[in-house]
From TrEMBL:
The entry's keywords: Chaperone, Isomerase, Periplasm, Rotamase, Signal
PANTHER family: CHAPERONE SURA (PTHR47637)
Database matches in InterPro entries: OMP_Chaperone_SurA, PPIase_dom_sf, PPIase_PpiC, SurA_N, Trigger_fact/SurA_dom_sf
GO MF terms, alphabetically ordered: isomerase activity
Pfam families: Rotamase, SurA_N
Protein's name according to its UniProt entry: Parvulin-like PPIase
Boundaries of every PpiC domain copy: 205-302
Length: 454
């Protein structure tokens, strides 16, 4: 799930390493000037009765924005948008695409401001650095060679240039934060030791591995931000990638790692998030949840007991036997053969006899001595956890994919878990504080920017 696998590099707001996907709405409307308990006040002295003169023609395409002299074109937006649409499997309505264009433009403006500020501080990112990171993206996230990845981007209506620009923006911003903010962040040893003591005192209590998408909101923008996040949640529940949404739109420091907060205890979270996490099931996504300064969407990646060995970390030695069905096999024919396969495999007496039985059944055999129980599909974990050495699981599969059984040849149970290291805890505290300063930094850049919209 990690893109760059960076810690301090994760300090960013809305731009990220790989374009992802989300649905975001237009900018919220301003409020009335007459005091009204039902309407948020902006203090901008805007009359209740107003007329908007002129209108934008959506059919006219020209340069989208000029940020302190740097141009963001409609092509820039379209290429970045194409990546988002591709991450959603191409299933994005025209209405949603229009909302996405607005969000992508805001992201590109932030990205431009970050690059400009880095250059103003004499920070440059070499083409070699960008290319190296680009290769990591292609290999780690797409498992394709560079040529295949380039072709893929073209077929999606995007380009390598737009992704490389995003990479450059993130690297430049991260380097700027490391130089201008991180040195002035102080975390005392006593703070870290206090956390370690609390962890030890909490041994056996629940902790969660959580993914978060955070978006800031003021009193005036809260309704629109909440609506945007509800649309993001709908896309994720419909099959969109939580990791990709987090990378593109989360304003937390964890955006670069797909929103992964790591392992946290309820006491470490805002109360609203803690309450939600304690009621969630692994794999569930909920939100938007009201938190100080904005809203969050939570994804419960996993759960465990603090400083207690997790049986799902057991290292297994498995032998897989599999049979396949020729084209045209009917359900009844497959069921008959699967039943015979089940009877034969359930009678196997240890892994030493498995190969002989496989030969009799015409089954293929695959051995793997390094499988963690937690890495198996959730539906299989409970079954395999209950097996004794030498026993076979019940058959599983389909007519299309064939039928398989897993035989447990060995199991090494995990040792007792230990508290995170002193350095790991200190790094996390530093990350949180740098992230807060980074958000203020970017907000100031937006306030001072000269932006022309065409």
């Amino acid at each position: 799930m990690n893109l760059l696998n960076m810690r301090i590099q994760g300090f960013k707001t809305k731009t990220t390493l790989i374009a992802a996907l989300a649905v975001a709405g237009a900018s919220p409307s301003v409020s009335q000037t007459v005091p009204d308990a039902s309407v948020p006040q902006t203090g901008l002295n805007i009359p209740d009765e107003l007329t908007i003169f002129g209108k934008n023609d959506p059919n006219v395409r020209r340069a989208t924005a000029i940020v302190n002299g740097d141009i963001i074109t409609g092509t820039d937006v379209s290429h970045r948008l194409a990546l988002i649409v591709a991450a959603n499997g191409g299933e994005v309505s025209d209405e949603e695409k229009q909302r996405l264009r607005l969000q992508v433009l805001r992201n590109l403006i932030d990205e431009t401001l970050q690059i400009q500020e880095a250059e103003a501080n004499e920070i440059s990112i070499s083409a070699e650095e960008v290319e190296s990171t680009f290769r990591q993206v292609a290999q780690q996230n797409f498992k394709q060679d560079i040529d295949a990845f380039d072709q893929y981007l073209r077929t999606q209506g995007s380009s390598t240039d737009t992704l490389k620009r995003q990479i450059k923006g993130e690297l430049a911003w991260n380097r700027l934060l490391r130089r201008n903010i991180q040195p002035f962040i102080n975390v005392g040893d006593e703070e870290v030791n206090a956390i370690i003591e609390r962890l030890n005192a909490s041994k056996g209590t629940s902790e969660f591995r959580i993914g978060e998408i955070y978006m800031s909101a003021s009193q005036e923008t809260a309704p629109q931000v909440a609506e945007n996040m509800r649309k993001i949640l709908e896309q994720i529940r419909a099959g969109g990638s939580f990791v990709a949404y987090a990378r593109q739109f989360s304003e937390a420091s964890t955006a670069a790692t797909g929103g992964d907060l790591g392992w946290v205890r309820p006491a470490q979270l805002p109360q609203t998030l803690a309450d939600a996490a304690e009621q969630m099931q692994v794999g569930q996504v909920v939100g938007p949840i009201d938190v100080p300064g904005g809203f969050s969407i939570l994804y419960l990646i996993d759960s465990r007991q603090v400083l207690t060995a997790d049986p799902r970390n057991a290292l297994l030695s498995l032998k897989q036997l599999a049979i396949s069905f020729p084209p045209g096999t009917t359900e009844s024919q497959a069921a008959a053969r699967a039943e015979k396969f089940a009877t034969a495999t359930q009678s196997i007496k240890g892994c030493g006899a498995a190969n002989e039985v496989a030969a009799q059944l015409g089954a293929s055999v695959v051995d793997n001595d390094q499988v963690r129980l937690r890495d198996l599909p959730a539906a299989l974990q409970g079954t395999i956890a209950e097996l004794q050495i030498g026993q076979a699981s019940q058959p599983f599969g389909s007519v299309e994919d064939g039928v398989r059984v897993l035989i447990l040849c060995g199991r090494d149970d995990p040792q007792s878990a230990s508290a995170p290291s002193f350095d790991a805890i200190m790094s996390r505290l530093e990350n949180d504080r740098v992230n807060k300063r980074a958000q203020i930094y970017l907000r100031d850049l937006r306030r001072d920017a000269i932006i022309e919209y065409n």
